[in-house]
Amino acid sequence: MKKTFRAIVSTTPDDNLFIEIPFDVKATFGKARPPVIVTLGKHTYRSTISVYAGKSLLGIRKSHAKPPPSPPAQRSPSRSKSTTPRA
């Protein structure tokens, strides 16, 4: 399954980058923490959606953020796709 969305790139207090997933991940991919392939701008990488404080998040590695995908609090085109078949 493929899901395309726009998201805000945010930062933690120690400058780590992440995206909050704006849809119900479990309903879309069949589980809360699915492995995904992320395309952020022109960069594609594998990741796993994490859940923190009831929110679904995608971390952005610093090596994937050089140059940063977009300044914090600006919308950037993003896409995620489950790498496991849905039952």
List keywords for this structure.
mainly beta; single chain; 1 helix; Elongation Factor Tu (Ef-tu), domain 3; seven-stranded antiparallel beta sheet
Walk me through this protein's architecture.
This protein has 87 residues and is mainly beta. The chain has one domain: AF2212/PG0164-like (Elongation Factor Tu (Ef-tu), domain 3, Beta Barrel), CATH 2.40.30. It is built from one helix and seven strands; from the N terminus they run E-E-H-E-E-E-E-E. Strands 4-3-7-1-2-6-5 form a seven-stranded antiparallel sheet. Strand 5 and strand 6 form a beta hairpin. The longest helix has 5 residues. The radius of gyration is 12 Å and the shape is globular. The model has no long low-confidence stretch (mean pLDDT 81).
What is shown here, in short?
With 87 residues, the chain is mainly beta. The protein contains one helix and seven strands; from the N terminus they run ββαβββββ.
Structural class: mainly beta
State the end-to-end distance.
11 Å
**Number of extended strands:** 7
Low-confidence stretches: none
Strand order of the largest sheet: 4-3-7-1-2-6-5
User: Would you identify the CATH architecture?
Assistant: Beta Barrel
CATH topology: Elongation Factor Tu (Ef-tu), domain 3
As a percent range, the share of strand residues is over 45%
List the helices and strands and how they pair.
Layout: E1 2-11, E2 17-20, H1 25-29, E3 35-40, E4 43-48, E5 50-52, E6 55-60, E7 75-82
Antiparallel strand pairs: 1-2, 1-7, 2-6, 3-4, 3-7, 5-6
